[in-house]
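Troubleshooting log. The previous structure file for this entry was overwritten by mistake, so regenerating from the original sequence record. Sequence copied from the archived sheet and checked twice against the printout by T.R.
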Amino acid sequence: QAVVDFERLGEHAAAFQGHDVGFCCLGTTRAKAGAAGFVRVDRDYVAQAAELARAGGCKHFVLQSSQGANQHSRFLYLRVKGEVENLVQAVGFDRCTILRPAVLLCRRQESRPMEWIAQKFLGIVAWVFPTAYSVPVETVAKAMVAIVLQPGEGKVEVLENGAIHKLGKA
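Regenerated output below.
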């Protein structure tokens, strides 16, 4: 495990050397980092990490994005996620997998009251519609590993929430 300073990511290029597969789940919230900080973390840091990984020999990059990601969205969160998807694809990996999970069901150390309420509500909804609006983070992690162990279905693969559920439970 290497600890890096994302403000000086270029100085940590050695940490990105010699890996066949890269996994990226980096992200923050607008509430925590402000709009500019959110863009810096969720787009700029991720794109720079992808570039360093490719330069270091990474062949397959797996990016956790978001359901509804769209570079043309009027919502900052979805627009930034769409932009970073495009930036990562442009890096030129042999294989790029983008996962677009819905609301992530997890336990956090920090307090996010609105997310907690949404998770409780979506946890109940998940009993009726298990793959529609949410996904446990463990399922996303299992899907990320499983996709690496399968042969690729193209240079770029996009897995929406339903496919993440299916792959994460296989």
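The helical segments are 30-55, 76-90, 113-128, 137-149, 161-168. Archived copy saved in two places this time.
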